[in-house]
Amino acid sequence: MHSSKNANPTIENSRDSLRACLRPYMVWFQAIRPKTLTAAVVPVVAGTALASSLAPISIWIFIFALIGALSIQIATNLINDYVDFDKGADTHERIGPRRVTQSQLVSRKAVRRAAGVMLAIAIFAGAPLVIHGGPFILMIGLVSLLLAYSYTGGPFPLAYLGLGDLFVILFFGIVAVGGVFYLQTGIYSLAPFVLGAQIGFLSTVLIAINNLRDVHQDAKAEKKTIAVRWGIQFSRFEILFLTFVPFLLQIYWFGEKPGLLSLAPILLLPLAYKIVHEVFTTEPSEAYNRYLAHAAALHAGYGLILSLILIAK
Predict the structure, then answer these.
(1) In a domain, 6, yes or no
(2) Which residue has the higher pLDDT, 234 or 154?
């Protein structure tokens, strides 16, 4: 029997060539931070699911809203990549996932150009939505584009002022869900607000864990996140609040749609408890990268289960 050391050199060379071809694309895949993209997808899916409980939905609205949301999310991530490097928040001491500008895997100019392309795609996708939805959707679109840059860039960067968490609750929760619901139905009510709050809180758990992990590095860079401003223990209780309030708000859906099906998200309570327990019992460190993955799973899972409930009912 031949060992793996005697493998066919032609096959090995082909594998090496394939890796070499894919490497530039993998760098960009890393730059867009795929684990964070649920923050863009879940509100669109959930808002559409809620609208479907009232009337037939428009597929083209769903597709363009999804493209727009993903483009803004990716643009925000890319802008954050080079701006945090410029401001000294991302250095060789970073314990979070590697950033492409800081690691010099991609030039700052290239990352900035890519962010501009994603914003252009967002504008392209948003144009038919504005035509369909009118001034209300135009306002949401313009503010979203502005804040994609202002999250870390500009003279008043939200993330550096401790306002990043509020931004996520609003624009990756309440505004995103409400905007999609309005586009599909032409109305707004308490239901999309509650749904948006649930999605927004769970999305913000990711930001809060990320900021708690980076609290010491952010303090050096004068990035005044909530963790830096109010301390580690306060940030832990923020995560506790953001994680469990969506489960309490599930009472609303039980009242609207009585039945055990409306309580299905409770199945995710063990994962929610695990995340909070991990954060409270572990000092900010590289281990928080794993907790981020758990929080992303909770956000996506909750959004999916709740969307299925709304469609089924």
Answers:
(1) no
(2) 234
Distance between CA atoms of 42 and 56, rounded to whole angstroms?
Answer: 19
- 81 burial via Cβ count (<10 Å: 0-12, 13-18, 19+): buried
Average pLDDT across the chain, whole number: 86
Residue type (1 letter), 79: I
pLDDT digits (tens, 9 = 90+) for 22-51: 456 677 777 778 878 888 999 999 999 999
Q: What's the angle, vertex CA 71, arms to CA 275 and CA 106, rounded to 5?
A: 85
Helix (H) or strand (E) run with residue 2 in it:
none
Residue 28 lies in a domain: no
Contact call for residues 288 and 35 (beta carbons, < 8 A): no
Look up the domain containing 308 and give its range: 34-312
The CA distance from 220 to 93, in Å, is: 11
118 occurs within a structural domain: yes
Helices assigned H by DSSP within 225-287: 226-230, 232-256, 269-281
Angle, CA 263 vertex, CA 262 and CA 269 arms, to 5°: 145
d(CA 45, CA 302): 12
| Number of structural domains found in the chain | 1
The pLDDT tens digits of the residues spanning 92-124 come to 555 556 677 777 777 888 888 988 999 999 999
- Sign of dihedral through CA atoms 102, 106, 109, 110? negative
- CATH classification at residue 124: 1.10.600
Q: Are 156 and 83 in contact (CB under 8 A)?
A: no
